[in-house]
Amino acid sequence: MSLAFSEQDRKELQVAKNLLENPGVAAKITNFIGSPIEKGLALLPENWNKNIGEVTQKALLKASEAAIFTMKDIPGEASSNIWHKLGVAVSGGVGGFFGIAALSIELPVSTSIMLRSIADVARSEGESISAIETKLACLEVFAFGGNSKSDDGSDSGYYAVRATLARSVAAASEFVVNNTLTSEGAPLLIKFIATIAQRFGIQVTEKAAAQAVPAIGAAGGAIINTIFIDHFQDMARGHFIVRKLERKYGKELVERVYLSLPKLG
Fold first, then answer.
1. Contacts (Cβ under 8 Å, ≥6 apart) of 8
2. pTM score, two decimals?
3. In degrees rounded to 5, what are phi and psi of residue 73?
4. 253 contact partners, CB below 8 Å, separation of at least 6
5. CA-to-CA distance for 164 and 234, rounded, in angstroms?
6. Alpha-carbon span 229 to 141, nearest angstrom
7. Cβ distance 63 to 142 under 8 Å?
8. How do residues 2-33 score in pLDDT, each as one tens digit?
């Protein structure tokens, strides 16, 4: 028999939904630069779309290889979001100074910092960051973009994205149980990261488009990166609140309540 969903948990789930279904990176950055992202997209190199998948996939692989899960495994410990924001702002400043050409260098650095921040949020919501499932759930966060013009409305909702990822998550989890997270020649893990990269690439393209706008410079690059990490910290907070409630009530009930809750906007 399932537990009755408490009012307090319902309110917390509403907070999670407000975070997860909020406008994406493009809308937030557009408010900062004062012009639509589309103007910046026109300034990107012709071969950009061809290269973005490779750039984002390499960034995610580098991030997963980095020592991001070396923090003490103390579930429930408060996350230190501000330090991660400062680190990403610095890397964004460098990227903004050198322009779009520096993205392939800057993105792996900022993605690694963001992934560590996501793990920090996971830990604060009671996850054991030494668990394989948690590590994969941290990588999943990069697929959650919020509402985006680039998304097909039918598959952009939080649970729709999780359903899309479910098979590759299960396959990657099964592989990693018997190997390390970054074993050489890990096709199932590579496939999982490629699936994440496909969605993360949308957000990266929007970030790059904003940084391509003339006069953004180092200061603008730092602010855009701060917006970028703030967005994924929000996605992480929402994701790990949902996972915490799923551990308590079961996924089916939480999903049902989540979908019944009102959506902002």
1. none
2. 0.81
3. -85, 80
4. 2, 3, 5
5. 21
6. 11
7. no
8. 568 999 999 999 999 999 998 788 888 777 77
